[in-house]
Every structure is written in structure tokens, then in C-alpha cells.
């Protein structure tokens, strides 16, 4: 139920979600939860007393969980769970932290800002700056702070009161830096506020052989199952492409994979055969005039990606991972975006964290935003996160949202 609720978006804080949308998400979750509960409790031995009643109660419990999630999302009782956050800093970094908190977490309550020793110019409301003469530890305890986000614009020259921050931590107040704040709040690694030391000495980036073996087994199982179910759709798509325009049904293009090794990705052709007749690579845009009518539909519902399942079976791709790019764009982005090459430390995927978290984009700025989600995935990838991304991909396909 936790996985299903996560995939349907119940655990995402959204200010303006209507009761109708929450009910729709609950019904979508029930489509998975009820059959799953029935299947699990049907495994109870047939001679067990009241087996049918147990199964019925389990399905009713699933429905009750969904009803409770809808109630919790629209009740005022969540105010008791508000986190009281003190932002240590008053510069542009502090302002950015406050903006992301207000946009992403309505339960967070910013109690104020505490200026660093070397911060003279403030970019936050003066009325919200705590300047009552108390040191950082006293201010945190006086205002019942649950968490301190360190967002200093300048962290050299003794501007970091480490002893006071340690005292706060010993008093039960969480202390996080700005990079950890973005990772926790937005599920991304903000490259503007991260350094190589944070990446090297922090947690994550586990690439063990056991994890790779489990991921490979899951990739083969899921790819085979999806191919077994989707082959009629793939056959119909091939026929439609052939009827609409001359040229090959499948499209093979060199992309960059694990450790920078190139491979040929397989997709259904969605563009005209002369899409790049001048030989110059171009970004695919949202309303690209090179896309055919059939191509426009299959790109919207992601059918054009289905042949990549053969890349998964061949070991060149995974079901979940950063989307593979062409060498031309990789060379360009590597020189312009810090840590871009880190995404090549795992296999590229048919779907990914950036694809379910970020809207369609085809510029350098969009690539930066998507990279921040890719870095989060590379740092935190696990079997659970893979399952969550695959479930959210289903929602993306059904709504037509997300990136390519």
C-alpha cells in the first residue's frame, strides 16, 4: 500500500489538489490494491476456517486505507505535523531555500532567518530575521525549532559557528546543509549548491555487485513480461507506421551507455526519414514539425519506446535509469554542466526519475534540471526506487505528462 500510494502521488504535498483528483488517485490505487489483496489472501490454505472472510476483510482494509488517505489529504489535522524550520542565512541561498520549502512542503513552517557573522546584505524580509541578541542555539530552542537549514552565502573566514550547530544537534534539532535540503525536499541534487566533497564523503552511490545482479534479474523479468503483454500493440504500431510513410519501421541510433560506451538504441520511427537531412543533430522539441501523425501519438503515450525492451534484454539498457543521449549532445553537455558524466556510472533506462519528475524539455537549462534528478537517482537508486519509478511511469503515460 505504501508503494501504491507513493506511485499515485498521495505522499506528494500539493497545495491546490482538488477532492476529485484525490478520489481519482484513490480509485486508480484500488485497481492495483484490491486484486493484490485478493491474490495474496487466496493463498491461505483452503481448509483454514473463515478464509473467505479473511480475504474480504483484507480487501476492505485496502479500501479503508485509501479512504483515509483522501481524508488526510484534505483535513486540517495535518497542521499538528508542521515542521518548524529555521534558515541559517539571509542571502540568495536562504531565499532559494525558503521559496522551495513554500512551494514543495505546505506543512513546513519557516520560523525565521538567522544571519551569519559575515552576512551584511540581506535578501529576505527584514521582519523575518531573528535579531533579538540570542546566539544560534538559544534562538533555535527559544523558537522550538525542529530543523536548521544552513544556507550561508559565504562559509569561509569563521562564518560557520560549528559549536553552536553541534549544540543544536545535541538538543534534538536536525541540522542539514543546503545540498541535503534540496535532496530531501525536492528529491534532486541541486548542482548549484553541491561540491565534490559532499558527493564523495556523503552516503549513496552504492554500485555493489549484489545490487547490479538483482537489478539485472528484475530487468529481464519485467522486460519479458511487458513484451509478452504489449506485442499486439507493437504489431499494430508497426503496421500504422508502414501505412503512413515510407521508410523503416524501427529506428536505430547511437547513444551513450554505461561508462560512456556507445550502443544502438532501438525505437519505433516517429519522424520523417529526412528529419536530419543536413546531417546536423537537433534537439527533439515538444511540437517538432519533423514528427509524423502516427509518431505524434506514439510519442505521447510512449509506445515508441517499447522496442528498447530488446536493448534491456541485451544488457545495454536497464528498465530504470538516466535516459541515454547522443554523443554530440553528451560532449556539449559535459563541457557546460558540472557532474554530467556521473549519470553514465549506471546503465541508461527506458524510463527514469527525471522522466516522471520533470516536464518535457529540450534546452541546456532543461538538461540541467533533468540532470539534478538523474544525480539523485544515481546516488539513491534501489530496487524500491526502481519499482516506484515504474509505477509512476504508468501514471505519466496515462496523463501524457513528463519528459522525453
From TrEMBL:
GO molecular function terms listed in the Swiss-Prot or TrEMBL record: transferase activity
Family label: Belongs to the bacterial sugar transferase family.
UniProt cross-references to PANTHER family, sorted A to Z: COLANIC BIOSYNTHESIS UDP-GLUCOSE LIPID CARRIER TRANSFERASE, UNDECAPRENYL-PHOSPHATE N-ACETYLGALACTOSAMINYL 1-PHOSPHATE TRANSFERASE-RELATED
Bacterial sugar transferase domain location: 215-398
Presence of the UniProt keyword Transmembrane helix in the record: yes
Organism: Pelomonas aquatica
InterPro entries associated with the record: Bact_transf, EPS_sugar_tfrase, Sugar_tfrase_EpsB_2
This protein's name: Sugar transferase (PEP-CTERM system associated)
Domain of life: Bacteria
Keywords: Membrane, Transferase, Transmembrane, Transmembrane helix
Membrane topology note: Multi-pass membrane protein
Annotated transmembrane regions: 23-41, 53-72, 220-241
Tagged with keyword Transmembrane: yes
Localization per record: Membrane
Amino acid at each position: 500500500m505504501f508503494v501504491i500510494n507513493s506511485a499515485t502521488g498521495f505522499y506528494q504535498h500539493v497545495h491546490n489538489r482538488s477532492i476529485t483528483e484525490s478520489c481519482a488517485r484513490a480509485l486508480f490505487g484500488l485497481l492495483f490494491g484490491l486484486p493484490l489483496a485478493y491474490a495474496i489472501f487466496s493463498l491461505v490454505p483452503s481448509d483454514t476456517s473463515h478464509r473467505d472472510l479473511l480475504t474480504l476483510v483484507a480487501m476492505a482494509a485496502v479500501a479503508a486505507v485509501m479512504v483515509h488517505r483522501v481524508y488526510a489529504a484534505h483535513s486540517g489535522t495535518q497542521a499538528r505535523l508542521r515542521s518548524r524550520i529555521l534558515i541559517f542565512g539571509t542571502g540568495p541561498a536562504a531565499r532559494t531555500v525558503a521559496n522551495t520549502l513554500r512551494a514543495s512542503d505546505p506543512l513546513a513552517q519557516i520560523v525565521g532567518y538567522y544571519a551569519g557573522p559575515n552576512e551584511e546584505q540581506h535578501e529576505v524580509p527584514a521582519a523575518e530575521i531573528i535579531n533579538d541578541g540570542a546566539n544560534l542555539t538559544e534562538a533555535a530552542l527559544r523558537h522550538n525549532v525542529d530543523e536548521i537549514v544552513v544556507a550561508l552565502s559565504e562559509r569561509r573566514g569563521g562564518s560557520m559557528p560549528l559549536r553552536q550547530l553541534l549544540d543544536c544537534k545535541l538538543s534534538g534539532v536536525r541540522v542539514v546543509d543546503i545540498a541535503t535540503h534540496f535532496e530531501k525536499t525536492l528529491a534532486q541534487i541541486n548542482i548549484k549548491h553541491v561540491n565534490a566533497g559532499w558527493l564523495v564523503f556523503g552516503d549513496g552511490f552504492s554500485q555493489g555487485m549484489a545490487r547490479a545482479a538483482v537489478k539485472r534479474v528484475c530487468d529481464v523479468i519485467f522486460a519479458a513480461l511487458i513484451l509478452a503483454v504489449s506485442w499486439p500493440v507493437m504489431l499494430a504500431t508497426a503496421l500504422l507506421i508502414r501505412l503512413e510513410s515510407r521508410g523503416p519501421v524501427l529506428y536505430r541510433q547511437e547513444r551513450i551507455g554505461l561508462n560512456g560506451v556507445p550502443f544502438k538504441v532501438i525505437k519505433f520511427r516517429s519522424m520523417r526519414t529526412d528529419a536530419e537531412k543536413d546531417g546536423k543533430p537537433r534537439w527533439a522539441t515538444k511540437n517538432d514539425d519533423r514528427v509524423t501523425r502516427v509518431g505524434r501519438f506514439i510519442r505521447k503515450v510512449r509506445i515508441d519506446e517499447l522496442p528498447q525492451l530488446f536493448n534491456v534484454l541485451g544488457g545495454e539498457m536497464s528498465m530504470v535509469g538516466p535516459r541515454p543521449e547522443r554523443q554530440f549532445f553528451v560532449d556539449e553537455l559535459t563541457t557546460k554542466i558540472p557532474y554530467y558524466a556521473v549519470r553514465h556510472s549506471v546503465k541508461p533506462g527506458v524510463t527514469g526519475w527525471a522522466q516522471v519528475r520533470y516536464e518535457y524539455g529540450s534546452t541546456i537549462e532543461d538538461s540541467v534540471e533533468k540532470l539534478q534528478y538523474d544525480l539523485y537517482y544515481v546516488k539513491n537508486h534501489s530496487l524500491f526506487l526502481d519499482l516506484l519509478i515504474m509505477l509512476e511511469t504508468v501514471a505519466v503515460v496515462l496523463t501524457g505528462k513528463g519528459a522525453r
